[in-house]
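ARCHIVE CARD
Drawer: 12
Card no.: 0347
Subject: one protein chain, sequence and derived structure
Cross-reference: see card 0346
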Amino acid sequence: MEPVKPRTYLRPTGKSREKWRGRQNIEERKSYVEEVNNANGNEDKQDESDRGRQDWSSKGARPKSVNAKKFQSEKSPAFASNRRNSHSAHRPHSAVLRNEKTNRIGGEDQYTCKRQENDRFPKRFHSITNANKDNFDIRRTGSESQLNFNYRDKTDEVSGRRYNGRVSTAESQIQSKRNNYNADRKDKEVHTGRKIVLGFPFLKNLIGNDPGYIVLELTKNKTALKECLKRTSENQEFLEVFLQALSKAYLCRTTPGLMIELFETLKDASFFDSVVFLLIDILGKGLKLESTTEQMIKNIIQIITIQLTRNPSSLFVVSRACTLLGQIIDGMSKETFANKEIVSMFQDLAGQKETLEKEQKTSSGLKSSRKPPDDYRQYSVAPSISEITSSDRPFLRQNKVEGEYDDLDHYLDVQFRLLREDFVGPLREGITEYIKIKTIKQDGNDNKSIRKLDIKIYENVSVYTPVITEYGLCYKMQLEMTNFIRRVNWSVSRRLMYGSLVCLTDNEFNTFYLATVVGRDEMDITNGYFIVHFEEDVSVHDVLHKVFQMAETSAYFESYRHVLSSLQTIREGDLPFEKYIVHCNRNIDPPLYLKSVKTLDLRPLIDQHITLHSENRLQNIGTQIRAGVSHQFTAKSFKAKSVNVLDKNSWPSKELLHLDESQYEAVQTALTSEFSIIQGPPGTGKTYIGLKIVKALLHNRSTWLGSENQLRPMLVVCFTNHALDQFLEGIAAFFKGDILRVGGRSESETLRKFNLKHYRQFHQSVKSHLGKLQMSKKQAKQELEEQSEKLEETAITIELYRSEVIGENHLREQMGIMLYNSLINNYRGNIYGKHFSYIKKWLGIKHIEGIAWQQAEQAFVRKEDNYVNIEDNTKQRQKHMITDFDNEDGYSMKQKESFQLKQIRHRIGIVYYVKDKMETEQKTTDEERKHTLFKRFLKVLVMRKISDVDVMSEEEAERINDVWRLDHNTKWRLYRLWVQKLCLSKYDEIEARRAQFELASERYREAMMQEDREIMSKASVIGMTTSCAARYQAVLRDISPRIVIVEEAAEVLEAHIVTTLSKSCEHLILIGDHKQLRPNPNVYRLAIRYKLDVSLFERMIKNNMTFNCLKLQHRMRPSISSLVKHIYPDLSDHSSVTSYPDIKGVSANLFLVDHENEEKTDDDIRSYSNVYEAQYVAELCRYLLLQGYERHEITILTTYTGQLMCIRKCMPKDQFNGVKVTVVDNYQGEENKIIILSLVRSNKNEKIGFLKTENRICVALSRAKYGFYILGNFSHLATHSTLWKEITEEMKTKGWIENGLKLYCQNHPRDDAIIAVKPDDFRKAPEGGCQKYCDIRLKCGHVCKRYCHVLDRQHETNQCKEPCTRVLCELGHKCPQKCFDKCRPCTVPLQKFIPKCGHQQTIPCSVEPEKYKCKAPCETKLECGHQCANECGKLHTKHCQVKIDISFPCGHNASICCADKKTAKCQHSCGAILKCEHICNGTCSTCFMGKVHQPCHHKCNRILVCGHACNDFCKHCPPCKAHCENRCVHSKCDKSCGEPCIPCKEICSWNCKHFTCTKLCSEPCNRPKCNKACNKRLKCKHSCIGFCGEPCPTLCKVCDKEKVTEIIFGNEDHKNARFVLLEDCMHVIESRALDKYMHMRDKANPIQLKGCPICKTTIRKCLRYGNLINQILEDIERVKGQMIGDTGIIDRVSHQILRNPIISGNVVDRHRLGNVRIPAIRSMKEKISNAYSERIQSAFEARLKILMNGNFYTETQLLSVENQHRLVKAAVDIRYRFKTNIEKTTVDERHLLTLEGLGITEVERLQIIKAVGLPKGHWFKCPKNHIYAIGECGGASQRSTCPECKSDIGGMSNKLADGNKLAPEMDGAAFAAYSEEANNMGNFDLNNLH
């Protein structure tokens, strides 16, 4: 076959070169290139037509480099001459655009080109972005030959993923999202006043950084990047630096999403045009290039090469640059000064370009039948609609188990198509079959037929609500709760597992959406709720309020996605060990790193105790590496210090290395072969050998780990998390170095400090690479949090709308005025409570609560699930999938706290909801548990009612007149309509923010990936699962692990291992056993027909590759290992297994119980169970436990999940807790002393399922160490399996198979055995022995009455249950307890005489009468005359409880206890009408008989000045504590509503082309309203109906005519009506009416913001009425200031209370007026104590602290506390004066005590009078109304002055000074005590003498 010549490149030579150089300006050079372009028209036309016919490949195979000899031949003079003479056939595409009208580049005045000062680079004014559209046709037609710079293929520009159908639309939406996202970032920069510039210093600093960091920084701000690209077209030096940074950025492979964005920006900004013009300029300077120019060319070639490798379709964008590069290189290659590196680089690029062009031109041609019809790299990972609905079978080829593949593409194509078919096939075939069933309509058998499909079908699935999770914007889905769904056992069901792929359609799968299950909470899924993430860019409106059919395939899509994508990126030369993997070469070379260093130090294999130490780079990232610790080896290991490992004769002996022969050979091969395979049969020590190999390699890590600048770590890969944890724990035991565990939540405590999460917590200096990446991640996280916070609140609001009941006031707009009035006015019931809701009554919530109570009671009486825990493969798979997603320290969306939810509920008008689980305390009693169940059922019922898909139509709702006449279901249908309408606006909010959120989320994930890559690059050992390795494949290619060790390699699909390998891998070690578990494809047909279940491990062995098989097993006793030797004939036993003890109580250590009891089928989980085996297994386990074995020493295995559930029901937790019960597949790699195996299968259908699979049998037979017992129908198994036949025959020969197991009593070994044929036969040994009685004499003398028992033969814990025979007392009474109980004192009742009281009492025999408390009634009379109510032996009653009648001074009567007659107060309700018109809720006593009423405790609910309702008590309105809602266009207030707002200092944004406001935002605007019409166009292309400079209304007068012209004020339908958008509620109001409305003043509430005329939402943000709003806000702030007052007053009040406390004696005023002792006053000393005043002081300090700790306080509150403190202090002073001054016995002594007014409570007045103890008539007041008292007779006998104001008080002869008078308000006296009237009892009330 003749080779295809490469594309010829035109180079100006001879006269042409001179002609080129002679063209000094750019226009002339363009004209020259244009001539070439015109001559090339025919060829371009043909190329374009080819492109029109072909479906371009998104990724082609990487071409090999052009042969140097061939390249030289094409440069011969003859060849060049031919090229010059054939311009028409071989001309390059032009690098410039053509002016069609003038057929030249353009007008001279427009395109005049100027050079920079350095005269090196032309400054162009003709960039494509500024090209005149009239002169340039940017889109290329078939007749044009110029370059199409705006060409866009339907292929992802970097990843090469092709989308079809719906997905192509999603691709354009993704680009739109990126544009919106960057526009939002630009707006944010404008608001924050910062501008990002990518200048010279920035780019130069970038060059020294990691490629991933450069990408993050370049794509951080699109506007700045565009400005940077603009500079590259004007400044050559800047372009040089940018090319250098860009070429390094292109080396990044860990951020594919950002690379797409970067290339799109380069393309949109015409960056490659700048490169073209640069190359034109270089071409004109001659062939000898400067070093800087050569570096630029290198950078350009590198950028183009990498771009074409990642996405071949981008060839059209860079083709002109390739052409000019060819001309430059072609000229250089003929000169002696040519740069060979540049020539070599371009040769690779030219060959790659040639291959791509060839592939594109031939891709639509016919293919050979043996070849694939298309390129697998074209496929998207997710299936398209046409693919699912097509009847064509996919092109598949068998995995070549024997023999080599044709080439790498053949190999990758086979692996890709088979793996993709494994998850696409069941979905396609299941949907096709489902459609066929539905079409045929099989007479009622539809459901049965559908359940047999490979997929699961769900009808009537709907989206419940959007939710925000760590996966981004997701949706909670709702299943229809059919009877079948209710019966599903979700704990073991494989339905809707995490990672499952679901397909949703609303049109019988004509179109559909693909989604992945990301949330499956067991409680939620039981009620039909689960969470999905859509794989496509789906609008919220596309999926909400729709009813779907859903098809589910159990394929774990997340794993498939990464592996398939990775397979598409592998090119020629990328796959290491290709000669073995693809071509099956049997000659295996040593590892490449051993070619320079052939000796290894093997001493750690001899000295096993040695611990290896290493420098800790991970703990010291960014610091100097510490030196390792020297190892202390023994002398015997010296000979292994330097071993030439390639010479096997120089190795130490196997005994010295502690290895057997097969292990010794395996270690030798593993360390000396770059491709090593180790097979480890059960028990032979695969993990042991693996750790030995790792220890040897880590000790010699200096030979392979690499330098400090480029570490090449070891990668350990396992299939499961459990195996990975085990292996890494083994490494951590001997290696104290940098171990990194990537992916998942490791269950190992040992590995916690090695998790990636742990190392992410180290924060590095921003000067280091990691520090810069962490800073980028932090910024991305902040951005994501900003976006998510907005979105999450909206999503929660929708969820509350869909799960809780909304109040009628919030639904008023959705209901309409007529239905709202019907709900309110037509209600005929009672209105009660302050939280009464009409809609709660209307919806019948009480009825629903009754149903929930019934369900709770029914569920409560069911038997509690109290069985052992089990581990099925469903749970294991779920755990493996979820924990494999390492997001623990990634961004996890914040859940709203309960108080935040409360705020949202209050704001959106929720009137009824059921508390969440987190709000409910843990319940312990039965009643509390029942109440918890009630709440759970009630919540589900309410959610189901609200989210039901049966929604009333608008037309039906319009016909309703009275909502109360509807039936229950119709009411809910109508309510759902209102909720649906309410949700629509919220959906718009989510849709508006969704794109920005998704882009921010993507950026954060990629920033986190960059951080992970930097951390992983510092590790010595990295461990991860295969799924995790697929996700991190881009990172692994960057860090290039030199050694890869794969544990469980035989269980892993080949594609998973291949994608784990990076190009630079030099050593691969596969450890596993293909005769145990194999890969498990989803599609059985692919495993059988296409050999997809053959792993790379097994395929290599079958192709006779060199491998080592371990042969000495250390686990099973010989009798058990004999079973496994049918599979491993060469397996031998270690001597240690021959000394195992026999199993106690049974006849054999290995036994097969044969039976013929048939199995049962579970259709839902497609599994089988066998009740006989389940019961037998449980009884055998119980019997073995009775023999003395611990529960953890026994494991029960079964082969089916259905049997697992059946066994569980036979094993109560109290008897079997601790016994492990699981399926065989989950027990791979595990072992135990005793294994009981249930095989299940027994039927007449001649089927044994996968029991005929040798691999499954092998695992099941090789887990036991001491004892192994198998149950099954072995005659049935032997009929259908050769292996089972061989095993059965051998067991029959040895007598180890019967229909029953023989049980032997350990106590009576010579007795006949009990043959346990049925499970009940084990009951013949009830205590584990036999049916004889024990008959052993116990220590108490009784005989043991138990059956023969093995446990506790010494009867140390045995309890004798016989009656006790001991005598307790002298009277001969016997102990009534059981023998094992401790004897108690004699309790026989006897009549005895009680000496203390003389009563006869019946008391226990052991009690002495003197110590007995008599129980007879007490006969003593109390002081009150009533009899004592206590028993004789107790103290007398202190508080007589006999009821007596009493009359109070107020006239009310009451019956009270006798003891309370002195302190009783009237409790009669006051009932007075207060000033607030509420009824006083105090009592007669607390209100002092109506004189001083208690404060009103009714809710105020008054609308405060801020617009919120007051939540405090009546007439006590403190500052509002709600969150302030004031906001402007710039920001929002973050304070509480009652606090003063900080005025906005930003410049007012109310600007238009007519007027501009120059004031600050918070100041009154200095511009008028602009009444000019807005000239903008809406999305519908109609004119805006708003005003110039104001936000455009969301409604269109044409499209939304009915809504716009709906009459509110009357002018809405006017022809010239203009409208204003109220941004607070988004309502659109007619302007003239709104102007009048806004200027109207409410006389009742003059200082209050206006509300929307429609919904009453407060108008806070409206440019048109900004002056009005600001004025009212200013007034409101003034009111706030008056309410709060002077904040400094708190200091004064604090000083008053804290520094001047209420302490008795702090003020002492002594006024002595006589020397007479007064006995009545002397008694005051006993009545007043310091403790009283201290308690009062503490109370005031506590009250002050409460005020100070609050958010704010009012001046009134503080002054009230101050006044009360002052008055109480004065009262205490009065007490103290009486207490301290009345110490003398003089007859004429009198006291004057003052009190400042009566500003005290009634209680305090009475306490003062009581404390002083003077009768009525002793209280007076001075002319200034200061209160004082006069002792003695109450008359003044000595002239004195008022101690408060020094006014004259009294004179002589009991006469007061003028102005002084009696103070009746103090004690109610009508006359002074010394008056004649008083002496005649005028001061006494005869009706109240007590």
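Annotation on reverse: Residues 1140 and 1826 are 105 Å apart (CA to CA). The mean pLDDT is 76.
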